[in-house]
Every structure is written in structure tokens, then in C-alpha cells.
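Q: Here's a chain of 323 amino acids. Please give me its 3D structure as C-alpha cells.
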Amino acid sequence: MAFWWVNHKQTFKSEISGRYIWSPKRKSNGGFNQTYENLRLVQPGDTVISFADGHIKAIGVATAVYRDEAKPEDFGAAGDAWHPDGWLVPISWGLLAAPIKPKDHISQLVDKLPEKYSPLQDNGNGNQGVYLAAISDDLGDAILRLAGMANKSAMDLRDEEMAEIEEDLVQKQLIASTVLPSTEVDQLIKARRGQGVYRTNLQKIEKQCRLTGVAEERLLVASHIKPWKDCTNQERLDGYNGLLLSPHVDRLFDRHLISFSDDGSIITGGATVVKAMLAWGLDPEMNVGSFTNEQKVYLAQHRATQKTKDSEIFSGASIEGPA
């Protein structure tokens, strides 16, 4: 997935609230502009960093490729000088709780700036001659690290959006398959939402939520242990690759904020998670019971992913905090 940087001081509010970025196809005099043309290169899942008024205020994920779109009416006078024909890319934005001022961190960023069409000047000021710039993974990762600790919710949103996009791509591949029978494709797609044959298989093994004790099937989520998008088709329907969980417990488990040891102990993702569990009446110290050998294989993979996420958060803490 690529990183992009958008300078949109004049249109920030419109594009953030409208969940998109937009540029004219040409300069007002009809001339070519590569940073406008870049909108046609953005792919679903790409990360877009929003810069306005000297600060990075939001981080988003592209949810679709560009489409032809006339200049948005809500630009008002801000777009009077722009060509009316343009391109629009849908973006799912996450506002940062603590905006980042690149000027305060320019010593960490300057060597990572692109030589051509750089969105920032060497002094940390924005380059307003550039609208949408391609930036390196190094620069993108540095920005995400700066944002990481103080803006964890925005990073979580980015992870969720990317997971959803990846699942959509897998589903499209299944639908386009010329090898799988349509009945099997239907069951694999239902399994994505915890339904169909997968849920039936799971209910033969799990009878209730292990944390809340709720056994009413209509109130429980059939949650994959190994994410659906990462599974083989057999694993997607495997009842041992799942747990029946109350919705709030599924939220924690699906985002790897909790996991389980083989002996049934709960592994939590830190103090914030523990506080949330206590507020929900969940006991972080409880034992949820034993697992089958088949479930333990999937749980080992779930724990490994949780450790990876924890290490990413920790690495962010070593960077100077946001301004």
C-alpha cells in the first residue's frame, strides 16, 4: 500500500467532512500538473496524510479508485480559479486528537522528503504548489509513528479500514472464481459475516460466550480466530477457527486487544483495555476454560498478531511526541 500527502488548506473542511480528495484535471490555463494527475494513481488501501494550516490534522485510507467529478459546490469561492472538471478519490478520514506540526520534527523528516514534488519545504513549511504528492514508505511510517501514541484511535481506524478493503478484495476474487462451485462461494462469503455453514460448525463446538456466559445465539457473534481474509477456504468454514462472543467481547478480540493463552487465561493489550473490561463488568483475571488442540493452533496465530501490534505501538513511543 502506498503513501500520499495532500496539501489542502483551502478545501480541508470540505474534503474531510465529505470524505474525499478532489483536484482539477488541469491548471486553470489548461496546463499539466503531475500532483493533480496523481489522483488517478491512488489505489484502495493507500494511506493519505492530510496537511493544512501548518499541521497534519488527519490520516485517511482510500476506499476506491478515482472517478470523474465536477468541482464540489461546497468549495465556494476557494475554487473559483480552478478548472471545473476534476477527479475525486473517496477517503475514510480519521481526525488526529493531537495534530502534528511537521516543522517541529523537520530534522527527523527532511532526509525522507521526495526530491521532486515534495509536499514540504526543507524548513518544514508546506509547498502549496503541490496538491497530492507521492511519498516514500520511510516518510509515511515516520508520520504514523509521530501520530501513533497520541492518536491511537485514528491508527485503529486506519487498520480497520484496511482490513475491510482487504476482505472486499478477497470476496471479489471468490466471486470471480471459475473453479469453485457457486454454492461453496456463497458459504465462504456468508462465513465472512459469521453466518451459514461456518456458524453451524462453530456452534457444535462453542455453546456460549466464554467471558459473559451469554448463550442466546441471537446475541452472539461468530468470530473467526484467524481473520477471514487470511484464511484458506477450508479454514474459513472450520468451526475450530472461531469463538461465540458477545458483541463487545468480539470487538476486543477481533482487534487483538485481548487474546487467550492455551490454558484459558486472558491476555490483555494494556491498561486502557483492562479499564474498558472492568467498566463492562468483565474480569480480566478470569479463566475462560480449556481449548481443543485444533483451537490452540489458531489461537497461537492470534497471539502472534497481538504481539506484532503491541510492538508497533511501542516503537511509536520512541519518537518525539506530537506538538
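Q: Can you summarize the key feature?
A: The domain at 3-148 is CATH 3.10.590.10 (ph1033 like fold).
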